[in-house]
TrEMBL record:
The keyword Ribonucleoprotein does not apply. One of its GO terms (molecular function) is peptidyl-prolyl cis-trans isomerase activity. Residues 194-291 form the PpiC domain. It comes from Sphingomonas oleivorans. SUPFAM superfamilies: FKBP-like (SSF54534), Triger factor/SurA peptide-binding domain-like (SSF109998). This is Parvulin-like PPIase. Keywords: Chaperone, Isomerase, Periplasm, Rotamase, Signal. Coiled coil: none annotated.
Length: 443
């Protein structure tokens, strides 16, 4: 299997204590058969905020609260659309990932590896920044989603601890030869112009005894993703490949780098599509085609554009009939734009807002807009697009820097990729051994 990315890290734990309680008497005939005393004393205190253990992993407790808070993050990534049996299955998978994370943190500490609070806070701030929030605002956002800052930090601790453990215990013993790297470079040059794919993968292992169950699970995942669920979120939770930590992203690969069944599936997919479960040795893979391009060939979609965006918005509750005259006036005005120098004047006449956008890569735009902009000449505008809710927009092409001919990855990049693949393969075996030797008490 072709594997690229960081070793998988699951989700974290927190410690909670269960409370003892006795059942209060019921004063109805339905309780007569229980022979309950009329004068009783309740021993212990039942606190609804305290949750009982779901699993104890080598002495470390995983609670319902831990699972609920991690599950909330997955549900938020999927827009809360997962319900019923699929939600229950996802909850079990979150528990398995929490167990893996606990084992990883425990193994790191056994080798005197400790992630300091300062390191965790620094990483947490970076994650918050990715969401364009301050750490304080991000904590509030997590609470709104039903999760918590502590849960996110535990996940961060697990990932950092596992990476550091692998860098000490596995990476020093992985060797990559210079001839191997030169061989990859030669094959890249020989395949110039051939297609390569950016692929996401979810890998599920199976045995002859579990094959049917694994296939059914894979089919359910495909169905959920095709109905709008997040492929990345499912990859993080379900995939047994080391790329799970990066949402299943394999990066850019050529067909010959993939097992033949995966290569054939990639050829048949369009960008954004997800394959059916693919049988491979040891289990099943589901792949999503993120993008495709030609090896060592300049891709027009890598061009950098300078754009002006003209937009109009409508009052809440406006109907299509009410806004049609304004939309038509906007479309006619945009059609008559002759160069970016006139865009601001045209916008003022139709009451449109103007926003300048420089250094926009074509491939980062939605697919329909990519085709429109690639066919425009400098100074021309796209057709209007949008909706009643979001408003109507048009883009004016003010400049374009075409991409240079691609030179391909460097020697160091290829070396790092081969090394990383081998480290990840050993990391999977390492985690499998930790699971085998662990004492896990399910409650």
């Amino acid at each position: 299997m072709f594997r690229k990315g960081l070793a998988k890290a699951g989700f974290g734990t927190a410690v909670a204590l269960g409370a003892l309680s006795a059942m209060a008497p019921a004063q109805t005939s339905s309780a007569d058969g229980l022979n309950l005393p009329s004068d009783l004393t309740i021993f212990g205190h039942a606190d609804p905020s305290v949750r009982k253990a779901t699993a104890i992993v080598n002495g470390t407790i995983i609670t319902d609260t831990d699972i609920d808070q991690r599950l909330a993050l997955v549900l938020a990534a999927n827009g809360g659309r997962i319900e019923g049996e699929e939600r229950d299955r996802l909850r079990l998978q979150v528990l398995r990932n929490l167990i893996d994370e606990t084992l990883q943190i425990q193994e790191a500490k056994a080798h005197e590896i400790t992630i300091t609070p300062a390191e965790i806070q620094q990483a947490y701030a970076r994650v918050a920044g990715n969401f364009k929030r301050s750490p304080t605002d991000f904590a509030a956002y997590l609470r709104q989603q039903g999760s918590s800052e502590a849960s996110m930090k535990r996940q961060i601790e697990g990932e950092l601890a596992w990476r550091r453990l692998l860098s000490r215990r596995i990476e020093p013993f992985v060797n990559v030869g210079e001839e191997e790297v030169r061989g990859v470079i030669d094959r890249l040059n020989a395949s110039k112009g051939a297609q390569e794919f950016r692929i996401g993968e979810i890998y599920l292992s199976s045995t002859p005894d579990t094959n049917a169950e694994t296939l059914a699970n894979a089919e359910r995942i495909v169905q959920q993703v095709r109905q709008g669920a997040s492929f990345v979120a499912y990859a993080r939770q379900y995939s047994e490949a080391s790329t799970a930590a990066v949402g299943g992203d394999l990066g850019w690969v050529r067909g010959e780098q993939l097992p033949e069944p995966l290569a054939a599936a990639a050829q048949s997919l369009q960008a954004g599509q997800v394959s059916d479960p693919i049988a491979i040795p040891g289990g099943y893979s589901i792949i999503a085609l993120i993008d495709k391009r030609q090896v060592l060939t300049a891709d027009p979609r890598d061009a950098l554009l300078s754009l002006k965006q003209l937009s109009i918005s409508f009052p809440a509750g406006a109907t299509r009939a009410q806004v049609t005259p304004r939309v038509e006036a906007f479309a006619n005005a945009v059609k008559g734009i002759q160069g970016c120098g006139k865009a601001n004047d045209v916008a003022a006449k139709v009451g449109a807002e103007v926003v300048d956008n420089d250094q926009i890569k074509v491939r980062d735009l939605p697919a329909p807009l990519q085709e429109l902009l690639l066919n425009l000449q400098i100074g021309q505008a796209t057709q209007p697009f949008g909706s009643l809710t979001d408003g109507i927009r048009a883009l004016v092409l003010c400049g374009r820097d075409d991409p240079e001919v691609a030179t391909g990855p460097s020697f160091d990049q290829i070396y790092a990729q081969i090394e990383e693949e081998r480290v990840n393969r050993r990391a999977r075996r390492y985690l499998r051994d930790l699971r085998r030797d662990a004492v896990v008490d399910y409650r």
